[in-house]
Fold:
Amino acid sequence: MSMEQPYAYSRREIVEPDWTRFPGWAGVTAAEWDSAQWQRAHCVKNVKQLRDLVGDLLEDRFYADLERDQAERATMSMLVPPQMMNTVVPGSHDAGTPTPAAFTEAFYADPVRRYMLPVFSDRRPDWPSHPYSTRDSLHEHEMWVAEGLTHRYPTKVLAELLTTCPQYCGHCTRMDLVGNSTPVIDKLRFELKPADRYDAMLAYLEQHPEVRDVVVSGGDVANLPWKHLEAFVERLLSLENIRDIRLATKALMGLPQHWLQDDVRAGMERLSTTASSRGVHLAIHTHVNAAQSVTPTVTRAVRAMLDAGVRDVRNQGVLMRGVNAEVPLMLDLCFALLDGAGIIPYYFYMCDMIPFSEHWRISVREAQRLQHGIMGYLPGFATPRIVCDVPYVGKRWVHQIESYDETLGISYWTKNYRTGIELSDTQALERRYEYYDPIYTLPPGGQEWWTEHGGSMVDIHDAATSAAASSRAAAAADVSAYDSLQTTGRS
Ligand code: SF4
Structure:
């Protein structure tokens, strides 16, 4: 008797959902849809615009849920380009126009909706934030060697050129800096003018020949006027020590029309030609979290970049419960990336410990099981590593834990290099660094311990986290209702 495999591969058809199914886009033409300007001008930025687009297809309870989240929980303001919005409930009208009740249920359950349009009822009522969650959970600002230039690893740096994106993800790790302020988070702002900041970054890189690899990021480089991005990358290419350049853009998926513009394609070809002539690897790193986000327009944009001479397009997804943190969903996504668009699945990051992210986060043990579950199906070069970005350490594969207290949900990690702020710290390589599982995933004894001790650990300087602590006590009674909501639907 032959047994079925735990995951059954089948080639997935890549489709562009019909955007005219949304009442607000019923008359939008293909030419408009393909225009980057039209896409940028028609992003969904608030509840009213969502209502104008979707109308009565969504029941009022959804709009109220979203409004409350915007007022009390959201760390990112709303910004969803039409291209992304169109991948929410992509098959909603396959069997004709759905009832509002059916559409609303499907909308609530949709993985792209869950992270781009988070609602209040998504969040944990008991522990919306972990007591150790912080605004800059990776401590990148502490490691700035020039404004926006993080030097955490020995040979590589992160250059944050700007603080905006064409789309804002609810779980954004850089919520401290990226996007507009929200009612619960006042964003940090760069102080220097962009030109001065870029000069300072490049001066640092010139003086530090040990740095060979630059992630050019933000925000999203698709929001930088092309001539500024090209000028910055050209200057990087003139530095003998820089051998790898990676451009970070979620817009390759969220607003692929940007990367299909003639001037952008021609500019990328110029950069790729220079990079190639100097033996430098120029790659694009994108951020796709759900298989349905890979559409023919995304595929065209990736091909355009590869045709322009970019060495590789790689994906760094974020692992989130309700979005992709299950073996079949991850493998569906990886195959859609690889077969459908020629994107290499590279990393999945565990969702970081920012305020109000607990409902998305999973435990290290769950992440290890996922890594185990996806091994062996994809080619080795395209099997993503699941990594935990441990504060003050950096990326570690989830199996690299040194020890693990699963009752309290505390994993301990070590490292083999000093970050930029530990160059004279003799203990940096001896120390154990901690990472925390979501409390609601712990056994009863661990949850009780955190209930008793967690409140005193809240950083009182962090308004968002403090708000989470006070709401936790008030909302404890809502937990069982929340659990049933997540498993049985919301109607
Ligand atoms: S695209 Fe990246 S930087 Fe921008 S909001 Fe999303 S996660 Fe944050």
In short: The mean pLDDT is 93. Residues 165, 167-169, 172, 174, 178, 219-220, 250, 287 surround iron/sulfur cluster (CB under 6 Å). The longest helix spans residues 262-277.
